[in-house]
Fold this sequence. Notes:
It is built from eight helices and seven strands; from the N terminus they run E-E-E-E-H-E-H-H-H-H-H-E-H-E-H. The chain has helices spanning 60-69, 81-98, 105-108, 111-122, 134-142, 166-172, 213-216, 229-238; strands spanning 9-11, 35-38, 46-50, 55-59, 70-72, 198-200, 226-228. It folds into two domains: 9-122, no CATH class; 134-146 and 159-238, no CATH class. By secondary structure, it is of the alpha+beta class. The longest helix is centred in the middle third of the chain and has 18 residues, at 81-98. Mean pLDDT is 72; it is low at 1-42.
Amino acid sequence: MCKKCKDPIVEKKYVSIGTQTDLTGEIPLPRKNVEIQDKEKITDTTYNFYDGKTSWDGSNNTFRELSQQHLFIPVKRNETLEDAYNRITVESEEMMKKSNGEINMKVTGNYPKTTLELFRKKSNAANHKKIIAKEESEWIMKASTGGIIWSEKYEGPAQELDYESMYPTCMRKVNMQWPIYEGDFEYLENLDDLPFGIYRVEIEGQPEKKKDEKCTRLFRYNPEKYYTHYDIQRAKDLGPYKK
């Protein structure tokens, strides 16, 4: 544990949330916890390390070397290194036993990360991070033009929106979709029923200048002509013709 951080540490490759091997996508079994604590202000660059059995002193360089192989986990305030080590060990072993090995805090490090890792395992989402290919990345970047932002002077009654509830409201929608894999590239002539995705289409009425009112009010035209299926549906509702 470090006084500046108030955290003990365990080996990074066994702790990172969502870390997976190339072959199985599973997190390896953990090794021994190591904790670190700042000394009593002898100097600003001297630390005292603890591995569950032995304490030893180290410099900033030692701390940096350990930081490359270890990751910090929480320690309670006014808790000694020995107490923190024992607590983490007991709690992790109890949860391991009660969950039949499914929950392992020696892997995830703390309660928030343990919760996230359990959610990841239980969810139906992809079990690994897929590298986005160059072509797919270009389509995503070119389709990102920002939201519609405009204003006009007004005096009178107004309605206040709760932006804090906007995200959970969107999450509750049954038709909300999130991409998890690369889509199929194909040419379409019929745009009547578009699935979730990004399309390159020409929408009638595109102005020459980005700052034109037509680009900032009800619809945002894309100079590269890359639109999401939401954009195209919006254009349909407003009336512009698509090619």
